[in-house]
Amino acid sequence: MRDELTVLGIETSCDETAVAVVGDGVAGPQIRANLVQSQLAEHAPYGGIVPEIAARAHLDHIDDLIRRALDECGTDFDRIDAVAASAGPGLIGGLLVGTMAAKGIAWAAGKPYVAVNHLEAHALTARLTDQVAFPYLLLLVSGGHSQLLVAIGVGRFVQLGTTRDDAAGEAFDKTAKLLGLGYPGGPAIAAAAEGGDPRRIPLPRPLKGRSGCDFSFSGLKTAVRERVERSPPSGPGEIADLAAAIERAICDTLIDRTGNAVAWFVRHYPEGKGLVAAGGVAANVRLRRRLAALAADAKLAFVAPPPALCTDNGAMIAWTGLERLRLGLVDGLDAPVRPRWPLDPAATARAEKGRGL
Ligand code: KG4
Ligand code: ZN
Q1: How would residue 356 be classed by pLDDT, with cut points 50, 70 and 90?
Q2: How many degrees, rounded to 5, is the angle at CA 351 between CA 346 and CA 353?
Q3: Is there a single domain that holds both residue 302 and residue 202?
Q4: N or C: which end of the chain has fewer CB within 10 A?
Q5: 75 and 205: one domain?
Q6: 280-338, pLDDT tens digit by residue?
């Protein structure tokens, strides 16, 4: 019998202020409220995220969002079981705003506080949406991270590969900027690529065909910059072809590296049944289609949360708080924010010794 639990979750690690209330019990997980306040307009004039502006915008919106989320599901601080906040990795100003709000509520209402790793929240979203069982293989692709991991349990991850330079989302964002398509670049490139020919303009696929599960995207960005400087796109048709070529190159690289990870996973975790995609880039429709085919070939179920739960949101923080609360993994009010917070700290040590898995 699963206890009925309700957790308030707060996400402020980057440029979305997000608050959600998630419940779980005999009827399974339920998102009772899920509000996101984007800061796109505030950052647009600067062509990227300005940390100081992000922190101030979080501060402006957070109280109102918390109030509205509680009102929307007709609950209050007394009737929730814990308060969870994204405590890292991310921009320190924003992390401080979200965690201080959560700690204040936890202290005033006498509820436990849960410091959530933002990456773990992306990683566990498939358990909220589809109740995926551990262990599963995870492609975590966002604006700041590109990783292949085995999710073994709550707080237990083995990293198979990571990016050597830019993250996949960063590759979308930087190349979109070069094409004048605006921020965030992923959805902009995907939209511009409609009707474009992905084969007309050749672009590199770094590390493709090599062993291992690491990524590299900076060569792609350089190739696009050089191409645009050499021959600026002449019109919408040319932009569509370039956008389609960029999207195809990033997807090819992700699929190649994930293919290696799938082969490793089925050998080492024969009991594992799922391939999960998470993070903002997992909202990409063409990537999802190809990952589904890859998983089917390996007889794994493919799970990707709906796009709104792939990009940053409060529900994933509340859910991770709830999973941790169930296991008694709560934190003190002196828990720090952690601008850097790897899911598998041992992976860095392994890489430094030149030893993969
Ligand atoms: O997970 P997320 O919302 O924030 C971080 O934690 O970074 O991911 C944001 C990233 C951005 O780089 C954005 O361009 C990318 O996800 N993204 C996409 C799509 N939607 C968002 N990339 C490709 N295709 C999309 N449809
Ligand atoms: Zn994220």
Answers
A1: low
A2: 100
A3: yes
A4: N
A5: no
A6: 999 999 999 999 999 999 999 999 999 999 999 999 999 999 999 999 999 999 999 99
For helices 168-178 and 185-192, angle between their N-to-C axes, nearest 10 degrees: 60
Number of domains the chain is built from: 2
For the question of whether the overall pTM of this predicted structure is more than 0.85, the answer is yes
Task: Write the CATH number for 52.
Answer: 3.30.420.40
Pocket test for ligand 1, best of 43, 177, 281, 310 (most atoms within 8 A of CB): 281
Residue 22 and residue 85 in one domain: yes
The span from the CA of 37 to the CA of 48, in Å, is: 17
Mean pLDDT of 267-284: 97
| Residue span of the structural domain in which 52 resides | 5-125+309-341
CA 357, distance to chain mean position in Å, is 24
Whether ligand 1 lies within 6 angstroms of the CB of 15 is answered as no
Is there a domain that residue 354 lies in?
A: no
The string of pLDDT tens digits covering residues 219-254 is: 999 999 999 999 999 999 999 999 999 999 999 999
Same domain, 73 and 103: yes
Q: How far is residue 55's CA from residue 25's CA, in Å, rounded to a whole number? A: 35
Same domain, 175 and 93: no
96-139: per-residue pLDDT in tens?
999 999 999 999 999 999 999 999 999 999 999 999 999 999 99
Does a structural domain hold residue 346? no
Distance CA 186, CA 43 (A): 17
88 lines ligand 1 (CB under 6 A): no
